[in-house]
Amino acid sequence: MERKNTIAIIFDDHSLFADSFSALIERLELFQAVHTFTHEKEFTRFLVKNSPAPICLFLDYYLKDKNALPLINECRRLNRHTTVIVISAVVNPVTVTNIIAYRPDGFISKVSGFSTILECLSVVGRGEQYICPVIQEFLATKNSTNPLPFTARELEILQYFAQGLSIAQTADQTHLSKHTIVAHRRKMMAKANVNSITELLAYARNRELI
Amino acid sequence: MERKNTIAIIFDDHSLFADSFSALIERLELFQAVHTFTHEKEFTRFLVKNSPAPICLFLDYYLKDKNALPLINECRRLNRHTTVIVISAVVNPVTVTNIIAYRPDGFISKVSGFSTILECLSVVGRGEQYICPVIQEFLATKNSTNPLPFTARELEILQYFAQGLSIAQTADQTHLSKHTIVAHRRKMMAKANVNSITELLAYARNRELI
DNA sequence: TATACAATAGCATGTTTTTGTTATTTGCTG
DNA sequence: CAGCAAATAACAAAAACATGCTATTGTATA
Predict the structure, then answer these.
(1) CB within 8 Å: B202 and A13
(2) Domain of residue B33, residue span
(3) Dist CA B196 CA A93 (whole Å)
(4) Of A143, A172, A192, which one is at a domain's C-terminal end?
(5) Is A22 helix (H, G, I), strand (E, B) or coil?
(6) What is the pLDDT of residues B133-143, one digit of tens each?
(7) Is the CB of B197 under 7 A from strand C?
(8) Close Cβ partners of A174 (under 8 Å, ≥ 6 residues apart)
(9) What is the number of domains present in chain A?
(10) Residue B147 C-alpha, separation from nearest chain A C-alpha, in angstroms
(11) pLDDT single digits (tens) B64-117
(12) CA B169 to CA B171: how far, in whole Å?
């Protein structure tokens, strides 16, 4: 695998993980440079400056209780030569479905070890998608037996409600019409057979959907 | 600081963090050796074998949704020359209080960076307790000013909302007037400085009040 | 290709929640 | 005992939510 012209970027609001993982990646001597970021602003500023250089982004799913996935599109928009590897501590139906929906080049659970990183870099280096064994197994068991009641989009929007956002606030966050949010919301409420957002959240929590 | 005779042990069920943090610690060349563990059994087996050697344990607070603190006593029992540094991704009243109660030699939030580790090792090397600035600040603000945000009655009623009940349904359940429920609800919302029930529930959940 | 369904969006109507304001009773504490 | 906070309760107006209905676009699949 040749990545000497590529810049590795580690994005995690837990600086301790970012710094540590950086040490691990640096030791591999596969990348031209390794940078760590804990805040979105610094990161996008860096992207704009270094737009032509190919980058390999290691992105933690959780950023201060918000999901980091919108950053993937932002990053791909700013730099066409972007490889995205999502790292998640949490493995549950919602998280996994959300992440898969963004089609990252790599998807790794934090319970994976060093060897998984090597394997992942090797596979994505060939231009293929890599999903770590832990997630693979999860998809095989959970997904087949328990068909998810909600779609990926619905689950994504459900996250905002779980964080306490209103319809209007969610519409702002997602750049969608509030009518659309209402539509998704009512669809979920119908599926769950409930008739308020608090009931829906209780329902979702009981099924570990959020 | 002299720790060349000490063995560093990293315990985290997230192997990716353990392996990464290990790379960081190894680079410091402060310890005789660095070992990582993700399971309790292997760890205690190792402890029994290496009982006389002084160890420095970096312990992640969360192990598969359970707290790892009982391991501290186990470790101290098996090896008198144990230095314990607890690392926590979560910083909330319950977690912080629990950890402090175990009197670890060091206590570091995962949002801290590399320099914090250096500072911590320096301080605990002198035999003093180190608590990282993030936790210090948390203790200073949250703990002193906010003893407990909600009354027992409010918390009781909050449970019904968490289960998805509406104002009217909660009034029925508690045999109270719905005006009373509204009053309790608004009191809590005022205390939490939010303005909807979903926000209140998110607030309460973040503080592990429900 | 026809069908189905997800995602998007809109409107109208009735219900629930939120908020401003006020008030009584009860129990604890200085 | 006086004062204060908690628990209880009420009314009205404004804001947000729920629901019945419709419609367009895109994607996937029988």
Answers:
(1) no
(2) 3-143
(3) 27
(4) A143
(5) helix
(6) 999 988 876 54
(7) yes
(8) A157, A160, A181
(9) 2
(10) 24
(11) 666 788 888 888 988 888 999 999 998 876 678 778 888 999 999 999 999 999
(12) 5
Contact assignment for B20 to A15 by CB distance below 8 Å? no
Closest nucleotide to B187 by C1' from CA: D6
Could you read off the pLDDT tens digit of each residue along chain A, which spans 210 residues?
A: 457 789 999 999 999 999 999 999 999 999 999 999 999 889 989 988 887 789 999 999 876 656 677 788 888 888 888 999 999 998 877 788 778 888 899 999 999 999 999 999 999 999 999 999 999 988 877 555 455 679 989 999 999 999 999 999 999 989 999 999 999 999 999 999 999 999 999 999 988 777
Same domain, A74 and A131: yes
Q: Which residues of B touch A19 (CB under 8 A)?
A: 24, 113-114
Proximity of residue B177 CB to strand C below 7 A? no
CATH number at residue A135: 3.40.50.2300
Residue A25: is it exposed, middle or buried by C-beta count within 10 angstroms (0-12/13-18/19+)? buried
**Which chain A residues are within 8 Å of B197, Cβ to Cβ?**
198
Instruction: Give the phi and the psi of residue B7 in degrees, each rounded to 5.
Output: -100, 125
Q: How many Å is the Cα radius of gyration of chain A? A: 18
Q: A139-162 pLDDT, tens per residue?
A: 877 555 455 679 989 999 999 999
Using DSSP, state whether B34 is helix, strand or coil.
strand
Top residue of A16, A26, A90, A210 to mutate, by most chain B CBs within 10 Å, is A16
Chosen domain end from B96, B124, B143: B143
Helices assigned H by DSSP within chain B: 15-28, 40-49, 70-78, 93-101, 114-125, 133-138, 144-145, 152-162, 167-174, 178-192, 197-206
